Amino acid sequence: MKFNTISLLILLISTITLFSCGSRNSQESFKLQAGDLLFQDLDGSSLSDAIEEVTAEEKPLSFSHVGIVVSGENKAVLVLEAIGEAVQYTSLDSFLTRSLNADRMPKVRVARLKNTHQVRINQAMSYGKTLIGMPYDSVYLMADSSYYCSELIYEMFKHSGDGSDIFKLNPMTFKDTKTGKFHLVWIDHYKKLGMEIPEGKPGCNPNDMSQSKEIEWVFDYSK
Sign of the CA dihedral 150, 205, 169, 191? Predict the structure, then answer.
């Protein structure tokens, strides 16, 4: 069977249209749910870069921040996060546009708790809302009255259901994965705080949390 030039042109246009519509429909059909975790490759500060450099493995996208989706008034989608000076709400648009890749797409991936943990989400969010305004934990130590981003998520689910850990704590490291030495940013950070680097203390970070077997990846805003 032979195609003339016009037939080939029509076939090509139809194929492009099919794939374009399929991609667009996939993005439009995705809906965030309360309790979804937004893992972000956050640029713009030396601490963010240092977090990635001491916790990331060799992979295309590493994470220095995480927030959780909550429902606001009038069905507005908000992100509850520990960032800046305190635990706070952030609009979804502000969260997504905070850090963009070369294609101007948000460097954010969405993870969802597996079905066995979904029943804990409402209680976790209720606890999280009680922490609004609590100070950001610039010391990065657990069990105090301040919170860093992944600590907030950990504590929210720790105070839900039967209190069992969905996410695990691991010994923290502040050493550069390439050199094995303390990252200069962390040396300077804790020197200003007047304290020793809490190497080996239990904690959590967005990269470790993103590798949990208790979550499933459901969407990638960077694409």
Answer: negative
List strand residue ranges (DSSP E) for the chain, in order: 37-40, 65-71, 77-83, 86-91, 108-113, 170-171, 202-203, 215-220
Token pair 């203390």 is found at 201
- Which sequence spans correspond to the domains of the chain? 1-30, 31-220
Tokens encoding 175: 């050493």
Q: Domain 31-220 in CATH: superfamily?
A: endopeptidase domain like (from Nostoc punctiforme) (3.90.1720.10)
Summarize pLDDT for 54-72 with one digit per residue, the tens: 665 555 568 999 999 998 7
Instruction: Assess contact for 206 and 149: CB atoms under 8 A.
Output: yes
Task: Show the DSSP H helices in 145-183 as ranges.
Answer: 149-158
3-state secondary structure (DSSP) of residue 171: strand
What is the pTM for the complete model shown?
0.82
Residues of the chain with pLDDT under 50: 1-3, 5-25
